[in-house]
Design a protein that fits this description.
Length: 70
């Protein structure tokens, strides 16, 4: 059984992981040094990128010959 391909290329996937890690690390650092709640933006960006990575994982794990629900 072949695995399906995701919608991200290998390069895009690596960049998504890098962006997720940078945003996830930047959020608590900004929370420590910022007086306002602007660090929540970094947290939201990290969560959105994580959602894209999870969706790509799900499409990669789906068998290649699986029918879509369209």
């Amino acid at each position: 059984m072949q695995q399906g391909s995701g919608f991200l290329t290998v390069r895009q996937r690596r960049l998504a992981w890098l962006g997720f890690l940078l945003a996830a690390v930047q959020a608590p650092v900004a929370a420590k040094f910022a007086t306002d709640d602007s660090w929540l933006f970094s947290l939201c960006v990290a969560l959105m990128v994580a959602t894209v990575i999870i969706a790509d994982d799900a499409s990669r794990r789906r068998p290649a010959n699986a029918r879509s629900s369209d």
